[in-house]
Each structure stands twice: as structure tokens, then as C-alpha cells.
Amino acid sequence: MRNVKLQSAMEYLMTYGWAILIIAVVLGALFSLGVFNTGSLLGTSCIAAPGFLCQNPVLGTNGNLSVTIGQSTGSSFYNIGIGCASTATTSGLPNPTGALVQIATTGAANTLPANQANANAALTGSILSQVSGQTSSISALKCFGTNANAITGPSIGTTFSGGLWMNYTISSGAASGSNPMLTQKIASLTLKVV
């Protein structure tokens, strides 16, 4: 009777032991192929803040972002500047002092601060103003990474997480105390380099 129980226990251990071994090998193979890498599951998304539009974001291997933005706040925006920055840095955000990325200012299209001129040499699609309901396409906008430098040469499949920031005035005149430069995060980005 005791031998029958021992034999039954051994058969049980051998059967389930082989099954557990096979499952472990399959899981190991899937892990080595990157199936469980959450970065590979992320898609491209641009989630706009209320009143704003963000479509078709593409981050290239040159570090340039192309995106279509718009606003439907009921107001016209002037002196618009756009910035793209990682969630872990504040560099690359549009800034009323002109120290960071600014696409255009009233009277001087495509004006860039000296420290950004080289990083944004290929900047196109500048926006001087935007009325409510209008969309604008921007290409070659540099995004800034966690090290506060413009992203250059990211590998295909690399992920970038950050945001689009806009500075603007609500009157067409130059920024002043009565017409302050406003800064707002208009979209959250999750991108894979393509």
C-alpha cells in the first residue's frame, strides 16, 4: 500500500514538474524577446488639454517633432511660441523672456533666441497668431530630454514622454503688463521614435 502511494506521488511530481519546466522555458523565451517590455507596448499619443487640439505627432530619428496643433478656446492667440520638453525637465518650454524655444514673435517671423537658433535651424511652420478653431502644422520642433538638452539622434523605437507647451498673448500687441505672456501645457506626449 505504501509503495502505491509513493509511486503515485512520484508520478504526480514528474508530470507537474515537466509542465512547470516547460512553462518556465516559454516565459524565459518570451522575456528575452521583449514581450514583457512595457516600452514596446506603448503607442504614440498626444492627449490635448481642454480647448486644444493635438494630432499626428511624429518624432523622427533626428529629434524633430512634427505635429498639428489647434485651439478652440474662443479667443485669438498672438505671439505664439511652442516648446516640447520631457516630463522631467523644464528646458525647452516657451518662455516670455525668450531664453527658450519661441517659434515667432509679432513683426519677426521665425525669430529664435541665439541659444536655440542652431538646435532649431530647420524649424518650419511658424505661427504668429491663431484664431479659435484654427489648426497649424509644425515640423522640425526640437524636443528637450531629461538632461535639458535637445534630443539628437534617438534610436528607432526609443520612447519619449513629455509635453507640448505654448506661450501666447491674447492681444496682438507686444507683451506688456496689460498684455501678459501666458504659458500653458497644451498636450501630453507619449511618442516612439520612427
The helical percent reads: 10-25%
In terms of quaternary structure, the protein is: single chain
**Residue windows where pLDDT falls under 50 for at least 5 positions:** 95-126
Total of DSSP H or I helical runs spanning 4+ residues: 3
Question: What descriptors fit this protein?
Answer:
33% strand; eight-stranded mixed beta sheet; alpha+beta; single chain; 194 residues
Verbal overview:
The protein is an alpha+beta fold. The protein folds into two domains: 2-36; 41-192. 20% of the residues lie in helices and 33% in strands. The chain has three helices and eight strands, in the order ααββββαββββ. Strands 1, 2, 3, 4, 5, 6, 7 and 8 form an eight-stranded mixed sheet that branches. The protein is elongated, with a radius of gyration of 26 Å.
Map the helices and strands.
Elements: H1 2-32, H2 38-41, E1 45-48, E2 52-59, E3 64-71, E4 77-86, H3 114-117, E5 129-130, E6 135-144, E7 159-169, E8 182-192
Parallel strand pairs: 4-6
Antiparallel strand pairs: 1-8, 2-3, 3-6, 4-5, 4-7, 7-8
